[in-house]
Design goal:
41% of the residues lie in helices and 26% in strands. The protein is α+β, with helices and mostly antiparallel strands.
C-alpha cells in the first residue's frame, strides 16, 4: 500500500465512505460483477438506476471530489465537485485531466488498487500545482478489478482546514475547560469526557475516577425515571424542553440540584450524549423557600379574615380579591364583586378622596380608618392599608391593599373607653390611694387620693422612688416585701408602713402589693392600694388605754372597730361569755355571737346608730360559749375621728335574762291577748274594740301608748284607763294633728324612744289618701321598725272598706290578735250572749225586756246580767230614743267562737 497522504488517516477515509454509504455501492458493484461477466466496463444506466437515491445524492453533493475510473484509466463518472473544478471530462483519461500528464503517475494508486483489489492511497500533483490526496477503492473488493472509486482531496486545503480545526479545537477546549458549567460526553450513560467544572460539581478529582461510574448512578433514584423517559422521547423525535432540573448524588453522598441540558452526538458513527449542567442547589433551596413562601402567603390570603385585593391603580377596577373581601362586603360570588369599582365601596366621598390624595402624594396609605358599605348599603367601619406598585419605568401599574372590618373592634374600643373611664372615676373617687411603680420602685401612675395621703401635688410623684418617702429602715423592709412578691408571684396582703409626707409629717399607711404583668406574662412592675391608718392607729392606742379603765367594770364592755371586729373586752364580758382567755373573743365579729334571726336587726340598728338616727337601748339574744342563750340590754356609743369618720364602737351590755322572764310571766298573768314585742298585729272590726282591748293589755304591762286615729279622742279615753298619747289623722295644722302623709307617720313612730304600743285606727283612711300600695309599703317599714325597737303595733281594719285581695295581703303581712287562753264565762251569762247572737244573726237588736222574756227571767235579773256583760265588754248598748237595744261585741264573738260550737 502506498504511503498515506499527510493529514489523512484511515479513520477519515472510512468515515467518509460510511457517510457516503460507499460500502453499499461497493456491494452493489460486487453483486453486479458476479452476476454477469459480459457487462460493459462502463457504469451503465442500469447500474446508476440501481444506486440508492440517497447514495447518489451523497455522491453528487459531496464537497470532495469523487470519480469512478475504469480500465485504461478512463473516467467513467465524476461528481459535481469535480465537474466544477475540471469540467465534464467523462470518457477522458484520468491522468491527463487531473494531473495534466501524458502518462500514468508512478506509482499510481488507482492502477495499484485495481491490480491488487485493495484500497490504495497516495498523492498527485494536479493542475495548478495543487497537491491532491488520492484514495482508491476497488469494487468489487478483495481481488483484481478494472474499476475503482477514487476520492480526490485537496491536501493543501485539508491541511489548512486541519490547522484551523486544531486552532478551533484548542479554542473550544479552552472554553470547555474554563466553563463554569459542567460539560461531559457519555455513551450509553458511561462518561468518556468531562471538564473541570463537571468534576467539581460531582466531587471527583480526576476524569479516570469519573469514567468508572455510570452517569445514571449520579442521578438520585427518584429522578432516574425522568432521565430514561427523556432519552426515549428524544429518540422518538419528540420536541423536549431545553433543560430539566434533577437531583444528583455526589461522590461523597451529598445531594445537589442541577439544571441539565442534553444533546445527541454522532461520533465515528456512534451515538453519544453531550450533557451540560450547573449547580442550582442554592437556587433550588431559594426556589423551594420561595414556593413555600408563596404557598404560605397564598394560603394565608385565602384563609385570613382580612380582605386582600389588587386593583388597577387610580381607575379603581379590581384585578384580584381573596374570599375575605367577599365576606366583608357581603357578596356571594367573586364575579359579582369584581364588577364593582373600589370607589363604590366608600360610604362617604370624602373618605375616598382622602385615600386617593394620599396615594398620589405618598404612594401608600397605612391603617386608615374609613366608613365603607356592604352590598345592601349597610355601613361599617374599615381599616385600610394600600401601596402603589410601579413598573420598571416608574409608572403605577396597580395597587395592593388590605381591608379589615373593625366594626366590632370599634364597639369594643368604645366599651373599653367607657370601662376605663368608669374605673378611672372609681380610682379617683375612692378614699384609698392607688399606685403603680416599675420594677425599680419608681412611681408611674397613681390616683388623687394617694397625693392627698402623701401631701404631694399631682405630678410631683411621677418619676419619684418610693424609698424617698420613708427612712432607711422602713425602705429596707418595704423592699423585702416587694422582692418577696416578685419572687413568689403571690400578692402581699396589707402591711403597715410609716411614711413622711412632703411637709415632714409622719403618717401610718396600710398597703397591699401585687405584680403587674405584660402581654407575655412577664412582670413589669407593681400595683398597690395604700390606706392612711394614722387615725386608726391612734384610736387603737386610745382603746388600749380605755380598756384598762373598764377592765374591772361589772357591766360587760366591748370595744369594736368600724367593721364590728372585737378589739377589747373586759373581765365581766369574759365571765359572762364563759371564756377562759380574751382570745376566745378578740378578733371575732360581734355579729357572730348573735342568733341568725337577729343579724338583720343588729345590722339595721348599727347603721342607724352610725347615722345618728337612734339613741337608746337595744335588746339582743346572745349565744354563749356553752351554746345557751341569754338576753342583753345594750347601749352603743360610736367612736369617731376628728373628721367625723367612724373608727369603732363601745358596747355596754348587761344581762336582763331574768328580768325578761319575769316580764313574760307578768304578761301572761295580766294580759288577755298573746302579744309579743317587736311584732305588728291586726284585727278585722268595724269599730275598734278588740284592738282597744289589746292596746289596754299592753299599757297594763308598762308599754308607752300612742293612738293614731281618725276618730275622736274621747272614744278612746272612755275605754282606756291608762295614759296614752293621741294623734288625730287630719289635714289641719294643730299640735295633736298628724297629717295622713305616710312619711310623717313613719317619722313619728321612728322617733319613739322607748318600747311603745301603737294603735293605728282607720287604715282605710290612709289607703284612701295614699293608695293601697304605698300604705302597704308603710306597713312593711313599720314592721321592721317595730322589730328593731321592740314596739308593738296594732292595726284596726274595717273589712267592709277594702277589696278582698288587698285585705288578704294586709292580713298576711301582720299577725292576728288571739287571746292567751279561754276566758271563764258563767253559763248563765253565756245564755244571754247566745240569745243576743241569735237575734243579731237575723238582723235584730233585742231590748233589755225582750231579752229577759226570751230567756224567761225577771226584768231585774235580766238588767243585772246585761249590765255585767256590758261592763266586761261582751255587749254593746245601742240607743234609739228611749229604747235601749243590744248587740254582740267583737270580743264576745271571739269568746263565743272559742267556747261555743
Amino acid at each position: 500500500m502506498s504511503r498515506i497522504p499527510e493529514g489523512l488517516d484511515m479513520k477519515d477515509v472510512f468515515s467518509i465512505l460510511r457517510s457516503m454509504d460507499m460500502m453499499a455501492l461497493e456491494d452493489m458493484a460486487a453483486r453486479g460483477h458476479r452476476g454477469s461477466s459480459s457487462e460493459s466496463s462502463c457504469i451503465s444506466s442500469t447500474m446508476i438506476e440501481d444506486l440508492h437515491e440517497s447514495i447518489f445524492r451523497s455522491l453528487e453533493n459531496a464537497e470532495i471530489g469523487i470519480t469512478v475510473i475504469g480500465k485504461n484509466n478512463c473516467i467513467l463518472y465524476q461528481n459535481d465537485a469535480l465537474r466544477k473544478d475540471f469540467g465534464d471530462v467523462t470518457g477522458c483519461i484520468c491522468y491527463e485531466v487531473y494531473a495534466g500528464a501524458h502518462e500514468p503517475c508512478s506509482p499510481c494508486p488507482v492502477n495499484d488498487c485495481m491490480e491488487k483489489g485493495a484500497i490504495e492511497t497516495g498523492y498527485m500533483l494536479a493542475k495548478g500545482q495543487r497537491n491532491m490526496g488520492v484514495i482508491s477503492v476497488p469494487f468489487p473488493a478483495g481481488k483484481p478489478t478494472d474499476r475503482a472509486l477514487v476520492v480526490l482531496i485537496d491536501s493543501g486545503s485539508r491541511l489548512k482546514a486541519e490547522d484551523a480545526a486544531l486552532e478551533s479545537e484548542e479554542k473550544y477546549r479552552c472554553l470547555f475547560e474554563s466553563s463554569i458549567e459542567g460539560v461531559c460526553v457519555a455513551r450509553d450513560y458511561r462518561i468518556v469526557s468531562a471538564n473541570r467544572a463537571a468534576l467539581d460539581i460531582l466531587g471527583y478529582e480526576t476524569l479516570d475516577e469519573l469514567t468508572q461510574v455510570s452517569l445514571l448512578d449520579h442521578v438520585a433514584p427518584e429522578h432516574r425515571s425522568r432521565i430514561r423517559d427523556r432519552t426515549m422521547r428524544r429518540r422518538n423525535g419528540e420536541a423536549l424542553p431545553p433543560s430539566l432540573d434533577i437531583q444528583i448524588i455526589c461522590k461523597d453522598g451529598r445531594r445537589k440540584y442541577i439544571e441539565a441540558s442534553t444533546a445527541a452526538l454522532i461520533i465515528s458513527d456512534e451515538p453519544y450524549t453531550l450533557a451540560s449542567f450547573r449547580d442550582i442547589t442554592e437556587h433550588a433551596k431559594m426556589d423551594r423557600a420561595l414556593r413555600r413562601s408563596e404557598e404560605k402567603y397564598r394560603t394565608l390570603a385565602e384563609n385570613i379574615d382580612v380582605g386582600v385585593y389588587r386593583n388597577a391603580g387610580f381607575s379603581g377596577r379590581f384585578i384580584e380579591v381573596n374570599p375575605a373581601m367577599l365576606s366583608i362586603f357581603g357578596y356571594e360570588t367573586k364575579e359579582e364583586f369584581m364588577e364593582k369599582n373600589i370607589m363604590e365601596l366608600f360610604q362617604h366621598v370624602s373618605d375616598c378622596m382622602r385615600v386617593i390624595c394620599q396615594m398620589e402624594k405618598h404612594g401608600y396609605v397605612r391603617n386608615e380608618e374609613l366608613k365603607m358599605k356592604k352590598k345592601g348599603g349597610t355601613p361599617f367601619f374599615a381599616l385600610m392599608s394600600a401601596v402603589a406598585v410601579t413598573d420598571s419605568n416608574g409608572v403605577v401599574s396597580h395597587f395592593d391593599g388590605i381591608i379589615e372590618d373593625i366594626t366590632e373592634r370599634k364597639k369594643a374600643e368604645q366599651e373599653l373607653r367607657k370601662s376605663e373611664e368608669k374605673y378611672r372615676n372609681i380610682l379617683e373617687s375612692i378614699e384609698d390611694g392607688y399606685f403603680e411603680v416599675d420594677l425599680a420602685g419608681t412611681f408611674t401612675f397613681y390616683n388623687d387620693s394617694l397625693t392627698r395621703i402623701l401631701g404631694y401635688s399631682g405630678t410631683e410623684l411621677l418619676g419619684m422612688n418610693y424609698g424617698g418617702l420613708m427612712d432607711e429602715k422602713t425602705a429596707r423592709m418595704v423592699f423585702e416585701r416587694f422582692h418577696r412578691v416578685f419572687t413568689r408571684r403571690v400578692p402581699e396582703k396589707a402591711s403597715d408602713w410609716e411614711i413622711h409626707r412632703k411637709n415632714g409629717e409622719k403618717r401610718s399607711i396600710e398597703a397591699s402589693i401585687s405584680l403587674i404583668y405584660d402581654s407575655e406574662g412577664e412582670p413589669v412592675g407593681f400595683r398597690g392600694i395604700a390606706r392612711d391608718v394614722t387615725e386608726r392607729k391612734r384610736a387603737e392606742r386610745e382603746l388600749t388605754l380605755l380598756s384598762t379603765a373598764v377592765k374591772m367594770s361589772n357591766e360587760c364592755i366591748l370595744i369594736t372597730d368600724a367593721e364590728g371586729k372585737i378589739l377589747e373586752v373586759n373581765e365581766a364580758t369574759l365571765r359572762l361569755y364563759g371564756g377562759l382567755v380574751k382570745e376566745d373573743l378578740l378578733g371575732k365579729n360581734s355579729l357572730g355571737f348573735l342568733p341568725p334571726e337577729d343579724h338583720r336587726k343588729a345590722q339595721v340598728a348599727f347603721n342607724e346608730i352610725m347615722g345618728n338616727r337612734f339613741h337608746g337601748t337595744l335588746e339582743f339574744d346572745v349565744i354563749l360559749k356553752n351554746e345557751s342563750r341569754i338576753t342583753l340590754e345594750t347601749n352603743i356609743t360610736v367612736l369617731r375621728d376628728d373628721q367625723g369618720a367612724v373608727r369603732g364602737a363601745i358596747i355596754i351590755a348587761r344581762d336582763i335574762t331574768d328580768r325578761k322572764k319575769a316580764e313574760r310571766n307578768m304578761k301572761k298573768r295580766l294580759m288577755k291577748y298573746d302579744l309579743e314585742e317587736g311584732n305588728i298585729y291586726s284585727f278585722q272590726e268595724e269599730t275598734p274594740e278588740i284592738t282597744i282591748e289589746a292596746f289596754k293589755d299592753l299599757l297594763k304591762v308598762g308599754y308607752a301608748g300612742l293612738v293614731v286615729s281618725r276618730g275622736p279622742r274621747t272614744r278612746f279615753e272612755n275605754s282606756i284607763e291608762n295614759e296614752f298619747d293621741y294623734l288625730w289623722l287630719a289635714e289641719r295644722d294643730h299640735e295633736i294633728v298628724l297629717a295622713p302623709a305616710l312619711e310623717d307617720i313613719k317619722r313619728k313612730i321612728g322617733s319613739l324612744k322607748t318600747a311603745s304600743a301603737v294603735l293605728i285606727d282607720r287604715v282605710d283612711y290612709l289607703i284612701f289618701k295614699n293608695g293601697f300600695e304605698k300604705t302597704f309599703s308603710l306597713v312593711c317599714d313599720l314592721r321592721e321598725m317595730a322589730y328593731l325597737h321592740n314596739h308593738v303595733l296594732i292595726f284596726s281594719v274595717d273589712p267592709s272598706t277594702m277589696a278582698e285581695k288587698e285585705l288578704r295581703q294586709l292580713m298576711k303581712e301582720t299577725m292576728k290578735i288571739v287571746p292567751i287562753e279561754k276566758e271563764d264565762i258563767p253559763e248563765f251569762l253565756l245564755e244571754f250572749l247566745r240569745a243576743v247572737r241569735r237575734e243579731n244573726l237575723v238582723g235584730r237588736n233585742p231590748s233589755y225586756s225582750e231579752l229577759g222574756e226570751n230567756i224567761g227571767v225577771s226584768k231585774p235579773t235580766a238588767r243585772k246580767r246585761i249590765r255585767t256583760l256590758l261592763n266586761r265588754g261582751y255587749l254593746r248598748e245601742l240607743r234609739s230614743g228611749r229604747r235601749k237595744a243590744l248587740e254582740l261585741t267583737e270580743k264576745a264573738k271571739i269568746v263565743m267562737g272559742i267556747s261555743l260550737t
